[in-house]
From TrEMBL, chains A, B:
Gene Ontology annotations for the cellular component aspect, listed alphabetically: extracellular region; lysosome
Annotated organism of origin: Niastella populi
Protein name, entry field: Carboxypeptidase Q
Domain Peptidase M28: start-end pairs: 307-508
A Pfam family the protein falls into: Peptidase_M28
Chain positions covered by the region annotation Disordered: 195-219
Protein location: Endoplasmic reticulum; Golgi apparatus; Lysosome; Secreted
UniProt keyword Hydrolase present: yes
Taxonomic lineage of the native organism: Bacteria, Pseudomonadati, Bacteroidota, Chitinophagia, Chitinophagales
InterPro entries cross-referenced by the UniProt entry: CPQ, Peptidase_M28
Amino acid sequence: MKTFILGLLICIPPGHLQAQHDEPDLNMIKKIRQEGFNHSQVMDLAFFLTEASGPRLNNSPGFRRAADFTKNKLSEWGLSNARLEPFGEWGKGWELKRCYVAMSAPYYKPVIAFPKSWTAGTNGLQTAGVVLLSIGDASDLEAYKGKLNGKVILLRRIDSLEPAYEADARRYSNEELKEMAKWKNVEAGELNKTANTGLQGKGYTSAHDHNEKPKRPGGLSYTQLKQFAREEGALAILSTNPRGRDGTVFVQGGGAWAGSAAENFPDLVLAYEDYMMLQRMAQRRIPVTLEIDVKTQFHTDDLQGYNVIAEIKGADPKLKQELVIIGAHLDSWHASVGATDNAAGCAVMLEAMRILKTLNVQPRRTIRIALWGGEEQGLLGSKNYVRQHFTDTATQRYNAAGDKVSVYFNLDNGTGKIRGIYLQENAAVQPVFAKWLQPFTDLGASTITLQRTGGTDHLSFDAIGLPGFQFIQDDIEYDSRTHHSNMDSYDHLQPGDLKQAAVIIASFVYHAAQRNEKIPRK
Amino acid sequence: MKTFILGLLICIPPGHLQAQHDEPDLNMIKKIRQEGFNHSQVMDLAFFLTEASGPRLNNSPGFRRAADFTKNKLSEWGLSNARLEPFGEWGKGWELKRCYVAMSAPYYKPVIAFPKSWTAGTNGLQTAGVVLLSIGDASDLEAYKGKLNGKVILLRRIDSLEPAYEADARRYSNEELKEMAKWKNVEAGELNKTANTGLQGKGYTSAHDHNEKPKRPGGLSYTQLKQFAREEGALAILSTNPRGRDGTVFVQGGGAWAGSAAENFPDLVLAYEDYMMLQRMAQRRIPVTLEIDVKTQFHTDDLQGYNVIAEIKGADPKLKQELVIIGAHLDSWHASVGATDNAAGCAVMLEAMRILKTLNVQPRRTIRIALWGGEEQGLLGSKNYVRQHFTDTATQRYNAAGDKVSVYFNLDNGTGKIRGIYLQENAAVQPVFAKWLQPFTDLGASTITLQRTGGTDHLSFDAIGLPGFQFIQDDIEYDSRTHHSNMDSYDHLQPGDLKQAAVIIASFVYHAAQRNEKIPRK
């Protein structure tokens, strides 16, 4: 019996014992809501991060403008140690300086196109014929030897556009949220298995797929193909994907960005409808002339990568060495201004800090904001930051400094409001977050799921055993339109959603900073 | 009692008496279905009308290529008298020869833009600042005097983009079709009232709105504004509309096209997201530089407008002078290749003729196909054709030649399959079409509604008292994406739907040609 009771006590996660102390501070929440809803600056912040700065491809001038703006804004608000902190050698900056593509014969038609990042230009306006390649494996390239000089290359596609019977924008239904909340912890030993509920939405592309080298059927890689195209004197290679449609184009990277990397072959993504038109013309043997003028610029003056860091210093002598960290990534892809990926998250995190600072909160723990660089190339800013500051190299778990980190909160699933939080299978934190979320039920945020979610910077903390969390957000048009596309623009931001997220995060951060204990580890 | 019975007989429309003779020829329908579904050429025809020809703005080179293709194809199939028939002086052809717009400072961003048709170019690549005009009435222009030289003009907008919670594509539900079928005839004297069921979909733009001169608040017309812009030496005026989003831009005409008309001021429609970015930059007083290079070409070698006409001659000596006419409009707007508006209708009507010719049908009446020019400028091709051939000038009703027209069938509501037919309040024809539709219930076409529908060429026949009908078609993406936009492209065509439509129309045409009587008039 005693043994049984002892066993029971051992099984109860520490969070349960703490939960009675986690009653939310309703007076503070009232103030946060008033500031966050009635005096919001989140859309101003979003404007300066997006349209005023430009595309924020890592290490590009747009990224630097946004980083400088952010650092200055944080200083202006009175945060401590606002700085651009290098996270190690990263690579070349790159920006688009000109992009014009059109079909000029047999008649004129503008083409919507974007070069992949870190690709070379065309050395001015070129006119070129089109060659449609139909390739199984490397041996099929032989047939095209001597035929590609000065040409633009297409690869034959066999897909087609289906009518869009599903809406581009959606919010989670109550039923979906209930399903998420029911999700049970996986067995011990399966902790690395990612939850797959299908609720993340179709077509979700993780941050890690940018550099994939898709194998052609038969094993020819895209890199081999581009090598062949270069050797043959081709002008550029074009591609597309039916995920982008109606003028929306999804575009990522076109190869290596390291300081020592060779320039990547010109490689453009076209609107699906334009690409397929060129393919059909080629299949019908109707001669086509393209006009193509792409100018790109590489920046090699500073190959370091940077995160933007600032703090509200803790006021409790016993706890001020401990950290509550909030973050989002500052870098973006380049075909638009990265509004939902992830100026939205940055603006919300900045706004949360502004709210707390405006309310003159004196937190017990130090609250740190970290806006990461290099997320789109593999969470590089946060990974390196966590490695440099918090990781025991031998064990790859958190070190003594890392032990001072109570929790990390991340926001990076678009513009959608917060519907709850993913626990990353950390059951012990469930009763804590349940109490903290309760005051926001009226704002639609009430779901706590044990599910893991992936694809962004909380994983860097989670990887060394620190509590790192991403909120559940409504998808809105993230998967269908904005995520890594030319439509990731300011007009696709939802002001009401961003205000809600800033209010909830300011409250979570405040409560994490005031809590007697750190957030329990898994 | 007798009187009552007599009254009853008088009240029964002639169609009811005929209905017993309108049993469909199931053997012929079987052949039509086999040819239309198993040997369809409808997508080949659509390709040649769209991507092989180019945009088919009336009297443009693209229109002429499509007209020539069509005429030759009809001749090749063995139809009689395939010809381009002039319908009177129409005006200038116009085509786009170059369109490049980008923001080049404070950073580079390509802009999706199209000039309105019949507008002038920019005389090469220009760089220009942007001026945002906020204008109530003409007196407000004073404030901008001397400030617009070499500038690009924006007009302040106060709308915003809402998330797209409704799908772009849709088909009629059974409930909607049932509602349409229930629709009752309006009172006598209200026959000109257009049915407004809301089922046509939001945002439907009639063929007649191209030339509207929207009044600015306070009464300043767009024409006055352009006049002021020209006098002040402005480079161009830009506009947008939130109906176009995600890279889709809806673009129509930018002024007069008459042979004697002056050149219209450069006038471009931008993607909503791009336009609003420029507006926000201007509102924040962030200096912006635009690169803009628009080249347009006017064609004045032949100011006549043309319809394409051909026939399968009737074989019944008594009836061969009578006509069953099918049509669709060949012209389009210019920002894409007019695939759903209305290459779809043309390809279906051509395919219907091909099916009948392939089956070596010997119709009793003559079957005529008419592909109209100038529809987008006000049904001009069909109106003039009907006026020249079938109209009594004094009464504005059909004349003796018009009396030989049994019926006109039109298809011009996009790529969607046929779900039934609008009777244009001609109750007498209901039992006839009910019999003719019955064999196509399995293809989703079974709804007959007394409703009128507008916006296209059957109105030209209806206007003089001849039976002219447009089929009920699923909307698919017509209102949301394709109708008068840069996305009216081949990939948005639905092959299965076009095959279905061709089969049903071939059958309707056949039965109309074989029927003992002409289709009853209203």
